[in-house]
Design a protein that fits this description.
Blueprint (H helix, E strand, L loop, with lengths): L1 H22 L5 H8 L11 H4 L12 E5 L3 E4 H10 L14 E4 L6
Antiparallel strand pairs: 1-2, 1-3
Length: 109
């Protein structure tokens, strides 16, 4: 009887492991990081490493734009497509509503 129960446990464990091995390649590290970010204790976005990459595509922006009013840096394409798709788009770093965008390094007069 005990052996039968252990075999059932091993089979269930095997099924769970097989499912994980099937799903693991579908998840990448940036997806997991963005999913876990709201639960992290460190809410600061002042780190240079955080600001040097686009929070959407996780790459260094070739054409950098700032989300206004918070002034966090994004790739032009990433920021433009998100603002066009979602009129009430919120900054991925601080959750502030993005009302406009400005090219990084340009002066507003």
């Amino acid at each position: 009887m005990f052996l039968l129960i252990c075999n059932a446990c091993n089979y269930n464990t095997y099924i769970v492991l097989e499912m994980l091995l099937l799903l693991l390649p579908l998840l990448n590290s940036s997806t997991v990081k963005s999913f876990l970010h709201p639960f992290s204790k460190d809410k600061s976005s002042s780190s240079k490493e955080d600001d040097s990459i686009c929070p959407i595509c996780r790459a260094s922006p070739t054409l950098a734009y700032l989300a206004l009013p918070c002034q966090h840096r994004y790739c032009y394409y990433c920021l433009r497509t998100r603002c066009a798709a979602v009129p009430s788009f919120q900054c991925s770093r601080c959750s502030e509503p993005v009302v406009a965008m400005q090219q990084h390094g340009s002066v507003v007069t």
